[in-house]
Amino acid sequence: MEHLSKILIIDDNPDYLFTMATFLKRNGFETLTAEDGQKGIDILEKERPDLILLDVMMESTYSGLDVCKRVRVNPDLKDTPIIGISGMGEELGVRLEKWGDEDYFNVNEFFDKPVDKERLLSKIRDLLEEGLIKKGKAFRIAGKLYKKK
Amino acid sequence: MDNAGSQSTVGSSYHTGKKTTHEPMNRPHSSFIVDGLGFKSIIDLLPCYLSIQDRSMHILFANQTFKYDFGEGIGNLCHKVYKGSPEKCETCPVQKTFDDKKVHISEERVRLSNGQMADMIVYSSPIEDSSGNVIAVIEMSTNITKVKEMQKELKNLGQSIAILSHDIKNILEGLQGGAYVVDEGLNDGNMELATRGWEIVKRNIDEITTVAQNILYSSKKRDLNYQKTSLNEVIVDVINLFQQKAKAMNIKLEYKTNTALPRIRLDPLSIRRMLENFIWNALEACKKDEGKQDHAVIVSADFHDRFHLKFEVEDNGVGMDEKTRASIFNEFYSTKGSEGTGLGLLVADRIIKEHGGRVEVFSNPGKGTIFRVIFRIN
User: Fold this and answer.
1) With contact defined as beta carbons under 8 Å apart, do B315 and B371 qualify?
2) Apex B172 CA angle, B160 and A13, nearest 5
3) The total number of structural domains that make up chain A
């Protein structure tokens, strides 16, 4: 499954982009990277990644939350799973909860830095599987995933 | 002992902060205090401000403590006496008590007759006539300036810790990521990958060093060690410190000095710390900028005008929009950055304030930023 999955990483820290891309590539995913929200939006509209790993607190013209909104209001993109990442976990958790009513700010999962890579990997796999099932490209029987040919 | 005599004795001991000692064998009987001093004197001596206002906010009565800190007061408008304001206070508890006959509490910032500002907690309660109409309101205030200052310090401390925890988490993420890349490079015998990972590790070690220095600076309440200081020498010292780092980041680091500058009284260690933080910030701004090929940071010292000298740190990095520029010295904002510089600009700002200087920031998104620090020639 991983070889089919494209993950877009959006973060304004180039070191972080590089290490995360290295980690995901070595775990069998295809990666795309963007160092600000605007580039992230361009890439995701063109490349349609299967999942987005998003720094929620970037200081660019398009912040992480703007990217989130752009994804959620676009009918073609709105189901793309987003994993939000930030160094201010609890504080941001409170804010996300506050915005809970506004669907377009919803991330599927939230990770605090430093990110537990094994947990991240397992969450990415879960979300990708759910995505495939939602798109009708796979089904699950007794906990096992079967992909349609 | 007559009323006036006791009043001045105890009154002055209260105001000078001396404690009145009581002989345990000679403990005065409660009736002696009430009968001897009289209620009027007790009210006068209360360690809080007590006044009575009529519906038009004129002061009908004020106790001695009030008069001591706010002047005579009686016959004047209370907002005039408390705040020097011709208008009623917006949150006036006295007015509310007149309106609904209930006790009200509010916090007010007032000016004492010696010109000092003070924070007060104010209580108001109604005086009613036999038919239940409010004819006047008693106001009792206590000075809570010290409590307020403590609150503010605690808040600052909390915010500093929030910034730190964010900085450290980011650095940890960088160290873990860098170490992972080194491992993978070594496993594969891919030295290029390992080297790239090692550079990330080293950058994060630099960052945690800066963070640690800023923690040390902001946690110690140190006295400034004023010396006749040459801005030129400070610049050269600090530039030398950063030259190698700038080279590694492929950023040109230059300086301009003016040999005609006089030495001025500053704490050279703090000023170095300040300049280091501005330069670090400028290098980070260049690193983040993808729009240009060549980046430079220029540090200079010169006359600002006849009475002032200035430092400038100029970069052609990412720049800031108006909103960002307005909030960089704000503690909450600093936590938003993704690099370990959150505390740096706050520390720089504090140093400038400690020296009675000021800072100006000019910035253009995509073009760059100039930090200008101005000190008076003393």
Assistant:
1) no
2) 90
3) 1
Which own/partner contact pairs does B198-204 have at CB distance under 8 Å and 24+ positions apart? B200/A15, B200/A18, B200/A19, B200/B174, B201/B174, B201/B175, B203/A15, B203/B174, B203/B178, B204/A15, B204/B171, B204/B174, B204/B175, B204/B178
Q: Which of B324, B333, B338, B369 to mutate to test binding with chain A, by most A CBs within 10 Å of its CB?
A: B338
Distance of residue A139 Cα from the nearest chain B Cα, in angstroms: 35
Cα separations (Å) of B103 from A41, B83, B137? 57, 22, 10
Enumerate chain A positions whose Cβ falls within 8 A of a Cβ in B.
Answer: 11-16, 18-20, 22-23, 26, 35, 55, 57-59, 61, 87-88, 91, 112-115, 117
- Structural domain boundaries, residue B162: 148-218
Minimal Cβ distance to A87: which of B169, B176, B287: B169
CA-based nearest residue to B112, from B45, B15, B46: B15
Q: Looking at the structure, do residues B227 and B375 belong to the same domain, yes or no?
A: yes
* Location of structure tokens 């004819």: B135
Query: What's the domain count of chain B?
Result: 3
φ, ψ (nearest 5 deg) of residue B369: -140, 145
Q: For residue range B321-372, what is the model confidence (pLDDT) as tens digits? A: 887 777 777 654 544 444 444 678 888 888 898 899 999 999 999 899 999 9
ipTM above 0.85, yes or no: no
Burial (0-12, 13-18, 19+ Cβ within 10 Å), B223: exposed
- B196 and B250 share a domain? no
Report field, pTM of the whole predicted structure over 0.90: no
CA B279, CA A142: separation in Å to the nearest integer?
59
Amino acid at A98: K
Kindly determine whether residue A19 and residue B180, on different chains, have CB atoms separated by under 8 Å.
yes
Shared domain for B165 and B137, answered yes or no, is no
In angstroms, rounded to a whole number, what is the distance separating the alpha carbons of residues B28 and B20? 13
Task: For B67-83, write each residue's pLDDT tens digit.
Answer: 999 988 899 999 999 98
Radius of gyration (C-alpha) of chain A in whole angstroms: 15
The distance from CA B186 to its chain's CA centroid, rounded to whole angstroms, is 49
Cβ-nearest to B181 among A11, A13, A22: A22
Residue B177 near residue B157, CB atoms below 8 Å = no
- Domain with residue B357: its CATH number is 3.30.565.10
Question: What is the domain-level CATH number for residue A94?
Answer: 3.40.50.2300
Contacts of A62 in chain B (CB under 8 A): none
Q: What is the pLDDT of residues A42-71, one digit of tens each?
A: 999 999 999 999 987 776 556 777 888 888
Same domain for B230 and B125, yes or no, is no
8 Å CB contact between B335 and B341? no
Does one domain contain both B110 and B247?
Answer: no
Does residue B197 sit in the same domain as residue B288?
no
**Contact (CB<8Å) B336/A57:** yes
Query: Are both B314 and B202 inside the same structural domain?
Result: no
Q: How far is CA B348 from the centre of its chain?
A: 13
